[in-house]
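Ligand-bound model needed. flavin-adenine dinucleotide.
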Amino acid sequence: MSTNTLAGPDLVEGVALSQLGENSMLLGHAYGEPVILARRDNELFAISALCTHYGAPLVDGLLVGDTVRCPWHHACFSLRTGEALRAPALDPIACWRVELRSGSVYVREKLETVVGAPAPRMASTPASIVIIGGGAAGNAAAEMLRREHYAGRITMLSADESLPCDRPNLSKGYLAGGAPEESNLLRTAEFYKQRDIDVKLNARVVAIDTLSRNVRLEDGSRLDYGALLLATGAEPVGLEMPGADLPHVHYLRTLADSRALVNRALTSRRTVVIGASFIGLEVAASLRARSIDVHVVGREACPMERILGAQAGNFVRKLHEQHGVTFHLGTTATAIQERSVVLQNGERLDADLVVIGIGVRPAISLAERAGLAIDRGVTVDEYLATSVPGIFAAGDIARWPDPLTGERIRVEHWVVAERQGQTAARNMLGHRERFTSVPFFWTEQYDFGLAYVGHAERFDRVEIAGSLDQRDCTISYQRAGKKLAVAVIHRDLEGLRAEVEFERSLVANKLPDSS
Ligand SMILES: Cc1cc2nc3c(=O)[nH]c(=O)nc-3n(C[C@H](O)[C@H](O)[C@H](O)COP(=O)(O)OP(=O)(O)OC[C@H]3O[C@@H](n4cnc5c(N)ncnc54)[C@H](O)[C@@H]3O)c2cc1C
Ligand code: FES
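Prediction:
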């Protein structure tokens, strides 16, 4: 949907209230823009029809309370103010005034974006905040601090050479050649300047002094902090074998990595991807879009079985095979040479490009050296506070108490990292907000999309409602009779409903405060 193809009635001219059922949405337009009328418990709202994340049609989403949730990646907007209440959307949607007259509803003038009053400065508000990490969590936290009217100094230190980027795009649209270079950055340099967020790039922190409250950078300089957010993300696991450091061997984490891969792909004819999980398979799909011959090598017998189960894993395998990918499963590479990759069984696969995607590990060495509690990630409580006062952690490094499973979990999902960054930001300002968001991730390979809600690290039962082959199904993952996660294939509303169902179960089984 774009503003060039306006659908539905002109809402300025008005529509009969009877056209708009209770708790429903109606797509139309007003003043040349696509607009949705929403009716909720006899209240009427007019909001922009397009999500500010990737432009999904919100009319296909779900009304929950006085919010609307996006069908694609589950952002959530206030119907009253348009505020982006939950990532991945970071910008609000527009709202219009609605008038009800003689049984008809009219959309009137656009409303000013409501900016809340500055929060009163509390004694505990830190004088300055340092964020280590310029990724999903770090960026979302910096933005949220200013949205919450934090007036102190914010410094974001990133080891990356680029401004915070849309990492999921790096293995999808950008690598496939469908999305331009500009689509990679989350924000412009001007954006941070306007908000007085000091972003330092190529700025690797090497030590945290938790007693004096300062961080030391690689160049020897030091920076004091009042509160600190650790959002150092994860690093690709390196493959140690002969030839792993050859110039045609690539990893994918940063924008620089993706750019290098795109450049190499321009002249590549045959790629071997080592690793058959999400990143490896998204890379395979994107390189096929460039008509490059792709072979995937994986230790597992069935790709993604551990996360999605055998049936969905086999479906994904078939999907790739239909697109011309050749799998070499149940094996591993033992050496990389200039024009080939050697497998365990001695087989030699031609390759002028090799991409390694065998997983990531959380970047916790800094936290470890600083003496923070660690448990296969940085241990945080439900407020995302670490074991050291004044230091919070968010994103791929954080292991938090998940109220759904009752277990401490750590995930590597974009939306979770952003939402944790936002919650940690508010908690650094003293809000005491629990992180209770239901985990969510998505993947896209070719024209196939899957969204996953919840978290099932282990499961003993998988139920599929609908048809995998028709690409129209809901897969639920259970352990000991309890539903832990739901994956949907081209059933966006089902995914949103599953999210709401998990949230309601959380409210019903409220966990006691650990503090
Ligand atoms: C190619 C790719 C595709 C993906 N696709 C999806 C997807 O489709 N869906 C999904 O849900 N998730 C996806 N993910 C995962 C998602 O991107 C991550 O979960 C998310 O980026 C984690 O955010 P983060 O802020 O914790 O870490 P990151 O975004 O990795 O940011 C970490 C930041 O910390 C910085 N840093 C690290 N150490 C230091 C240090 N010592 N000093 C200073 N700075 C430091 C880094 O430079 C970086 O700026 C994808 C990841 C990749 C790499
Ligand atoms: S398009 Fe709406 S959340 Fe991504």
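The pocket of flavin-adenine dinucleotide (ligand 1) is lined by residues 132-138, 157-160, 167-168, 170-171, 203-205, 231-234, 252-253, 279, 363, 366, 395-396, 412-415, 417, 441-443 (CB under 6 Å).
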